[in-house]
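Troubleshooting log. The previous structure file for this entry was overwritten by mistake, so regenerating from the original sequence record. Sequence copied from the archived sheet and checked twice against the printout by T.R.
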Amino acid sequence: MEQQPLCNLAKDQRFEGFVLVRSADQRTGGNGSKYLDLNLADRTGEVNAKVWDGNVPCPAPGTVVKVRGTTLEYNGRLQMRIEKIRSATDEDAVDMSTLTPCAPKPPEEMLAEIEATVNAFTSEPLQRLTREMLRRFNDRLLYYPAAQRIHHAERSGLLHHTTGMLGMAKAVIGQYPWLNADLLYAGVILHDLCKTEEMDSDAMGVVRDYTKEGLLLGHLVLGVTRIQEVANDLGIAGEPVLLLQHMMLSHHGEAEYGSPRKPMFPEAEVLHWVDLLDARMNEMQNAVSKLKPGVFSEKIWSLDRRLYNAQYEQIAPEESIPTEE
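Regenerated output below.
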C-alpha cells in the first residue's frame, strides 16, 4: 500500500511507513529519562519525531527506518510521537527515490553543461584552473547537495544550484556584455565547490554533519586555499587567481553571512546576487509547493518570514466569450 507523503500530514494523524533519518540524537529529559530526537524525511518533506523509550538504539543518519506513530502539534509545529521503529531490510525493497529529494536533471547532464561552459572559455588561465578544480572534485559532484537543510538540500543539489546560477549569469552577460564572461562563469562554477569538503554527505545526498575543516574554516576559506594550490601546481599566477579568490571570499556579500570582504568588482557583485537569487527561489519553491493555494506557511527561519501560496488562477486572463452576430 502506498504510504502517506510527509508533506500531507496533519495533526492527530496515524502514520506507518518508511522514512529517511536526517538526524538522530539520544537526549535526556528534565526527569532524567532518555529519549530519541529524530528528523525524518521523504522526498516531499521532513518532520521532527520523538521516541520516548530510552532503550531504543539511536539510528544512524542516512539510514532508512520503518516507523509507526501519531502526529501532534508542539509549539506550533507538527511533530510525530513514534510508537514503533525498526531498521529497513533488503526484503523491504524500499524505493529510495520516494525518500530522497533529487535534482530535477540527471547529474551527468548538469556536469556536462558545466564542462561545456568551461570548454568555451577564451581565457586560457581561467580555463585551465577551473577545469583542474572540477577534475579534483569530480567524484563528489555527481551526488553532493548544496546544503544540509536549506537550499538545494537534495542529491546532486550542488550541480542543480551551479547550473541554475550559470543560466542566470549568462542572461546577465547578455544584458551587460561589457562584463568578463569567463571570470563570472568561473566564479559561479567554483564558488561552492568546497562544500564537498565542508559537509560530510553520503551517496544519497544526505549530510550527516559538517566536517572538521568545514567547522573550522568553511567553504569560503577552503575555496581560496584550493584555488591557490591548483594555481601553484599549474604555474598560474597574478590577476586571474586573485580575482577568483576574492569572488570566493565575497560571494556571501556581508560579514554577518561569512564574507570578510564585500564584492569589490562587478563580476563579484553579480556572483553574489545570482547566488542569493537561486538559493532563495529554491527555498521558496520548496516551501510553497507544500501549501494549498491561498495558504500561508509557518515562519521560515532562514528567510525570516512566512510565505504565501498565491492563487494564480484567479489572476489569469479570462477566456473571451464569443458574441452572437
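The chain has a mean pLDDT of 90. Archived copy saved in two places this time.
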